[in-house]
Write a structure and sequence with these properties.
6 helices; alpha+beta; CBS-domain
Length: 147
């Protein structure tokens, strides 16, 4: 019997459609203000058509500042991570979690047909896995008590 896997679409449905984006030409101070204002750890960089072209995370900012690689006038496009790893709504939470853990990043844009639908964090995925396991445990306990 195959166990149904949790899909990213269920996480996106729970989170809602809001995803914070910026353009590659945004200044680094403005991007930092955007992260702080929304209390988020990364912002998806989109092209004029709305397709993801990169991601700027707190780690990217710290890495550039620590390397004294912070020229005046630096933009998001100068510091963003590209190419980016993206997922689709139909992807399994477990598979995406494994990729994130192996590649050591905490944010993954979710894209369908080139359009950004949302972003998931490693915390979102761990919570979804935990909730799924808890549901399975409760189901098994119920079956054992009914037997």
């Amino acid at each position: 019997m195959e166990v149904p896997r949790v899909k990213l679409e269920s996480i996106l449905a729970a989170k809602g459609p809001l995803v914070i984006t910026t353009g590659a030409g945004t200044s680094i101070p403005d991007a930092i203000a955007l992260l702080a204002h929304h209390n988020i750890g990364a912002v998806v960089v989109v092209d004029p058509a709305g397709a993801p072209s990169g991601i700027l995370s707190e780690r990217d900012i710290i890495r550039h500042l620590a390397a004294s690689d912070a020229p005046a006038g630096a933009t998001v496009g100068d510091w963003m991570t590209t190419p980016i790893t993206v997922a689709t709504p139909a992807d399994d939470v477990d598979a995406v979690l494994q990729t994130m853990t192996a590649r050591r990043f905490r944010h993954v844009p979710v894209v369908e047909r080139g359009q950004l639908l949302g972003i998931v964090t490693i915390g979102d995925l761990v919570k979804a896995e935990r909730d799924d396991f808890q549901g399975a445990i409760e189901s098994l306990e119920s079956q054992l008590l009914d037997a």
